[in-house]
Amino acid sequence: MWGRIKIRRADTLYSQYLRKERNYRCEHCGGFFPEGRGLTVSHYWSRGKESVRFDEENSDILCIKDHPYFEEHKTEYREWKLKRMGEKAFNLLMLRAHTYQKKDDTPILMWLKQEMKKQNSEML
Description:
By secondary structure, this protein is mainly α. It has one domain. The chain has helices at about 10-20, 65-70, 75-85, 85-95, 105-124; strands at about 40-45, 60-65. Strands 1-2 form a two-stranded antiparallel ribbon. Helix 1 packs parallel to helix 5 (about 105-124) and helix 3 (about 75-85) crosses helix 4.
């Protein structure tokens, strides 16, 4: 459990998938972390917002140094995020974040299993 939000099976799989998908690199400092150790998934909009909990545009792979830094420096995180995404994409993400969505892990688990299978087959 991180804060008050329970970490679900879908969160764990999503984290594994995303770290591998983004080549085990911190997206802020560029540091390489073999097999993802030392990396975290940072959600720009909190995981409590179901509509963007598993949204790849809402998720950044950050090292254990950069993640807490951005948590404490929200203005810098916002500026970094805006620069990476562009204003239009950022505003669309904000709109999605403020749209209600009921919790349902079934579709995300099905998608993650399919994507992870693809990742594994690409390695062979």
